[in-house]
Every structure is written in C-alpha cells, then in structure tokens.
Hints:
11 helices, 26% strand, single chain, alpha/beta, four-stranded antiparallel beta sheet, six-stranded mixed beta sheet, Rossmann fold
Amino acid sequence: MSTPTLPTEAQARVDSQPRGDAVTFENVELAFDSKVILDGISFRLAHGETKAIFGVAGSGKSTILKLALGLLKPDAGHITVLGEDIVSMSEDQLFELRRKVGIVFQESALFDSLTVRENVAYRLLEEGNISEQEIEDRVREALSFVELEHTVDMYPSELSGGMRRRVGIARTIITHPEVLLYDSPTGGLDPVTSNTIIELIVKQRDVYKTSSLLVTHRLQDAFTLGTHYFDRAENKMKPLPAHTRAAVPMGFLILKDGHIIFDGDLKSLRETQDPYIREYIS
Length: 282
C-alpha cells in the first residue's frame, strides 16, 4: 500500500521524546479467583520502542494492555506509564493519563450512528476547547495517514472490515498519543487486509516512533514487523536488507502459563534453543 508522507511537525515530536521507559511492569501478579493470569512478570518498553506480545489464547496478552491502561489493578507489583505509577492512581488521575495513551481495538469499536468524520474526531470533540477548523484539519490528516480521506462522510456500515480497522487507527492517532496499545488489530481479517494494517503500524512505528505494545495472535504479523521498515522516500513498507536491523527498536515478548519466557529482539528469537518457543514459532 502506497501511503502519503506525514506532516513534518510529526518528526519534531519524535526528536523531543524523553529517554528512559514508556511502560514498565515490575513483578506484576494477577489472578481471578483461583486462576493465575500473570505470575510475577517484569518487562520494560523504552520510549520509541515497539514490542509485540504473543502467546497461546488465555496467556494474558490482552490483560497486559488492560493493566497498562489502569482498567485492571494488579494483585501485586508496580506498573509505570510515562514515568507515573498507575497502580496507586485515582480514577481522575488515570483519566488524565489516558489522554496520552491510544488504543486500537480488534473490532475498531466505532459508533454506528456517527460518520467517519465524527468517529475520528470524537476525542477532540470531547475536549471541547479545539476549534472546528483545527478538528477538521486533524481529521483529514489522520484519515490521510490511513488513506481513507474519501470516507469522511460515510458511516461504519458502509465500510469493509479492514477499512473500519483503519478508521479505528485514525481515531487513535488523531490525539498524537505518546503510547499506543494495539489489541489484535488484524484479528479476523484476511491476509491481504492484515498486511495493510501491519504496514500502517510499521509506518506509525518508523515515522512517529510512538512507544507501542502490540498484542497479536498472528506470528506472521510479528515477523513482518521485525523484518520490514517504512521507506518514507517511496511511501511504502519494504523488507530490511539482509543482516540489518530497523532504526526503531522492535522487541518480542512471549507469555506462557503466566510467565514471560522470552523478551528480546528478532535475532535472539530466531536463535533461541528453547524447545517450546522453537515449536511455537515454527
């Protein structure tokens, strides 16, 4: 998919990103009744890094995103997002923090009764202090990013499944979040449409350099993220040259039985001798 170049002001935001970690989990535990979901997990997401989280169904992947948003509280451990300890935050404090965090849902979660313009602008309209012209400009910018400017006056029922996912991404990035959470963004899509969504994620990663956690059930998605980059000159995703790494950090996290059994880059993943992981990724 050929995609337009982003506005130059986006790059200015990238250059001013702070160093350190965007998200950290330290010895986080969570159980529902007698079922242990997460058993003392620890990991870090650096500013500008994208980390793909995968594991079998029920391994706790989406739970990590809910914890990072403060929608769930851990039974033990510490979670920081953008340098703030969210475990001890009140709901009002979490609401303010969530303004800096965007989430892309598997089913897009668009409002059926609103047009694409109204769906994408929803969070800006909620803030109530942004002019109509700025909202319109930012809606157009976000839709241009996902190549759906022509859908601005359409309703979700008029869009294909892949187009709804792309509108969902536009709605998420319109606020220029500092952290992005993707919850199975390609789930239920055909391979061609899935690749279109992954290309948008690669573009967001390589151009905006937004710190991101991505839950996926598709190993192919994770490997595409690890082996491709977005070429701004040609406005498309391209394979990385042999024996090179992407300029933007890309990591992989594998969960099993409530534990993290792998946390590293693609080279380390390919070279692992762990029999479970080798079978899982084969």
